[in-house]
Give the backbone structure.
Amino acid sequence: MTDSANGQDYLPHLQEARSREPQDGYDTAVLSPGEQQLFGLEARNVSAWFSGHKVLERVSLHMEPGKVTALIGPSGCGKSTFLRILNRMHEMVQGAQLAGQVLLGGHDIYDPVVRPAEVRRRIGMVFQKPNPFPAMSIYDNVASGLKLSGIKVPDTSDLVEDSLRRAGLWQEVHRRLRSPGGALSGGQQQRLCIARSLAIAPDVLLMDEPCSALDPTSTNKIEETIAELSDQVTIVIVTHNMQQAHRVSENCAFFLATHDTPGYIVEFGPTEQMFTNPADQRTSDYVNGRFG
Amino acid sequence: MTTVGTSPRQPGLASVDEPIRIRTVTPEDVLTLVGAAIGALGLDWLVYERLLPFTGALGFWVCWYVLFALFYIAAAAMRWSRLVVRDKAIAVLVSTGGIFATAVVVDQIAYSFVKSLPAIVHPNFWTQTMVNTAVLQPLSSGGIVHAAVGSVEQLAIATVLSVPLGITAAVFLAEIGGALARPVRTIVNAMTALPSIIAGLLVYALVVLSFGLGKCGLAAGIAISIVMLPTVTRAAEVVLRVVPGTLREASFALGASHWRTVWKVILPTARSGLATAVVLAMARGIGETAPVLLVAGFSDTMNANAFQGWQATLPTLIFNNVFVEGEYPKLVERAFGAGFALMLVVVVLFAIARFLGGKRPGELTKRQVRQLRREAEQP
């Protein structure tokens, strides 16, 4: 099994950024129960535009290491855009711009010396729609991150097994690792995508509505997977499902946008408090299903 | 007690379910169609052969088709509503159009095959050259193997030159784009319309004369590659564009660089489509005649060296036999035989492309199967 401490060896540029003094504020590296270094994410005054149209207004959010942070809010409030800013996927869209800082373990991922590909290797992402590579088998899908990001490990099949076990898929597929990944059910495909992200040992896993295309049973399995992963990797999850946010997350941020103002964070805090005793009336209305 | 989730079967029902037949063709539909066809035939014969001063099979059948369509619509209008009539009339027109297009292709292939039969039944047709055979000699002497060798060699050269270049250009257009993509796409589109003789002239001036290569198979291969290049590029670009953007995102999110994404995700996903693109271009390239004649000349002897000396190909052999030598019946039959061989090559190319590109994603190659077996045998 590889862990993120080993992963750093492949990232000279990010290390270079790290060798500088960490910026003030949270230094977010802590140790997991397995003595593994965990990194948190911190967004500072993040704004975003699409073709000059502002969609996010100075969002600051601290995503604690080794915890699950849920981003909730109605459609079009900029949650997904914010999530994609966290691993530099936002800039892939034509006409997309942003401002502000995102710190991984105290270092800005938008630092000019950092390559986007390195950031994305450290901060994995699971998408709304399962997207396994159709031209690859289950095994190759899990191992694809190694090839794609140029990581070499001593034993690929061990890593594949370990990643599939962590994603809760091993029992279901270990007899047919060589069959195509597209032949699995939707829920299995999504867990395959989670295993694929885990194989390259990211520090943070971003999930963009990972269960919105899945049935309740599959959703349940993914949530179990998230619960098991939460002490190994920092997780940020966007969800429309209030109950899901309540079940899986430790911290929760409520985003809101109106038709003439860009999205911003109304309230942020421990999930329990957000759902039982929110400070803002709008949060209370939203989590209780009175709008959105 | 109530049962939840299952309904008790009603007594007296058959135990086996019969699927109901949806969209059955009624006798009325068929009879309307047949009646219109026969009625049109009768009227057509009367009018065309007896009343009007026209002759000729083509005109007869064109008139028959028009009458058939009118009869069918009229008969349908008597029974069904306007909407149904329009639907049925268009269905009949579209189906007959499809049948006609298929019939033309089948007719061409069957005609060439029948005409080529006298030549291709002789084994020597496939094994000998024309070096010792005069124009009037029987078909039991001489063959086309020299032209087949020339065709295959030149096509191989053209493919090796045009496919990597064409796919690279397609990757540029589909993946990188930018300000340069527009002029490149315009030029590629213009090249599709380029008369192939122009490609021949370019190669003649540049390669044959300026570089002093002389007329040879290599020059013809280069000319064919110019013809193939836009076909590969356009078809490959279309195929690359249909690769879902979600896969591109997934690859980037795993920390892949752009070129690794193209190399490991996009090209493998588009593999079968790319194989089709290549075969389309090869099928276009192998039929080229004019530029090949210009830069590779023609020969009755076997010349397997593509880098030196004139070389015959199947299309130039057909051209030579029918046009240059005059219409000797035996030579025309040989030309049809060469045409049949040409179609055979195209069919083989398609089969190879299906074999290479048609393998389902994730399916194992024989080498991988052997490797897995070896791994399994090790303790």
Remarks:
- DSSP finds twelve helices and twelve strands in chain A.
- The domain at 4-287 of chain A is CATH 3.40.50.300 (Rossmann fold).
- The interface with chain B takes residues 87, 89, 92, 117-118, 120-122, 124-125, 127, 129, 131-138, 140, 144-145, 147-150, 178-183, 193, 196-197, 200 of chain A (CB under 8 Å).
- Residues 26 and 44 of chain A are 12 Å apart (CA to CA).
